[in-house]
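Methods — Computational structure assignment.
A single polypeptide chain was analysed. Its primary sequence is given first, followed by the predicted tertiary structure written as structure tokens.
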Amino acid sequence: MTEALVHLVGAGPGDPLLLTRRAARLLAAAEVVVLDRHSLDAVAALAPKGAERCYVGLTADGPGWSTEQIVDLLERRAAAGRRVVRLKGGDPFVCSRGSEERLSLLARGVACQVVPGVSAATAAPLAAGAPRGRSVTVVAGNHDPAYPPLDLGALADPEASLVVLTGRAHQGALAAALVAAGLDPTTPALLVHAATRPDQRVASTTLSGLATFHLPPPTTVVIGPSVPGPAVLEPGHRPHVADAGIPAVAGREPASETSEGRRAHP
């Protein structure tokens, strides 16, 4: 009997050419791809035409699946002997619940192999041409009740770069807390939407401007002295990445989407 196995794969920042070779190979052989949202479709398109694709993340129609519901789905598909890829944006352990999903799978006796990915925390500033300060701190902008609140006072370092992931809805509150902790309101802030993708957009403002300046999701915010000063919104540019043998996606039909993948809950 085949051991139940799930591959927890980092999808990188969105450009399929920034996948690891192992991630691309696993997707090319996948029978089931479980992903959070359609923003990863260009990466998921590397899966075969007939692969099942299930969406489990937050949508405009309602909340995403809980960790338990996602793990239930992964366990059922893996127990049926299917090749399962759980695709997570960026790196599955950076500001993500990938570690929780892995531990839950292991507790149920389902083997889980992790494939690291390029995190937006490093890719977004690089794609936008932003240098870094003497140190870099990466935080999740959305507070997860499973963890204690961030000590924002400890993050208000005027010589460091602060990279904020998944925090678009809380930009104003974060900025206000950093200013209250002593960070200069004129500290530059950079917003990068859809980093490395064809529709990448980059804009810069100041810490005080974050309350009213937004780009569509997914957006990464970089705060620090090394960020370029305020500028008008302009189209971004994808970095040039040499083709490293990753299968081409042009002309490939999208993988099939099951009714289970369209539901808000299993």
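Note: The chain has two domains: 5-119+242-262, 129-235.
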